[in-house]
Specification:
Helix content: 25-40%
CATH superfamily: Peptide methionine sulphoxide reductase MsrA
CATH architecture: 2-Layer Sandwich
Radius of gyration: 15 Å
Order of helices and strands: EHEHEHEEEHEEH
CATH topology: Peptide Methionine Sulfoxide Reductase, Chain A
Shape: globular
Largest sheet: 6 strands, mixed
Length: 175
């Protein structure tokens, strides 16, 4: 098994997409890239800690490559928006990749180049150094499966992301 850490806006929305992929065994929402140890959701949402809302994906590289995972990432959020995704604004919603090693860093650079042609504006996704990972509070985990399907924000944002996933990556989805 391998892991990947990515940030693409609200972690509820990113988590919902990656849970659908074949080869993914776990998706954990959390915080990374900031200065405050053990931040809370409220602190991160305030935008002063430097953390990004992110997900840590555990996957089987024999079923889903890291490159494929990054291609899904670039197809299901807008990597051209600096420090925001739609109505979510602030550095905590930035588009970022946190490679776990040099091979992932090289693949992240290649994925940015490979996916740039799909966007009308430059990709602003950052490749950031690995930093301490802080799992989000329990109520954020599996949010879409539980509370999210009753949350108007999630109902507006997540189904279009899932439609993009199905349109471009149906063969990579769980059966």
């Amino acid at each position: 098994m391998a892991q990947a850490i990515i940030a693409g806006g609200c972690f509820w929305c990113v988590e919902a997409v990656f849970r659908q992929l074949a080869g993914v065994s776990e998706v954990e929402s959390g915080y990374i890239g900031g200065t405050l140890p053990n931040p809370t959701y409220k602190q991160v949402c305030g935008g002063d800690t430097g953390h990004a809302e992110a997900i840590r994906v555990t996957f089987d590289p024999a079923a889903l490559s890291y490159g494929d995972l990054l291609d899904v990432f670039f197809a299901t959020h807008d990597p051209t928006q600096l420090n925001r995704q739609g109505g979510d604004i602030g550095t905590q919603y930035r588009s970022a990749i946190f490679p776990l090693d040099e091979a992932q860093r090289a693949e992240a650079e290649a994925a940015i180049t490979r996916n740039a042609a799909h966007w009308p504006a430059p990709i602003v996704t950052t490749i950031e150094p690995l930093a301490p990972w802080y799992p989000a509070e329990d109520y954020h985990q599996d949010y879409w499966v539980g509370e999210g399907q009753r949350n108007p924000y999630c109902l507006a944002v997540i189904p279009p992301k899932l439609a993009k996933l199905k349109k471009g990556f149906a063969e990579k989805m769980k059966g």
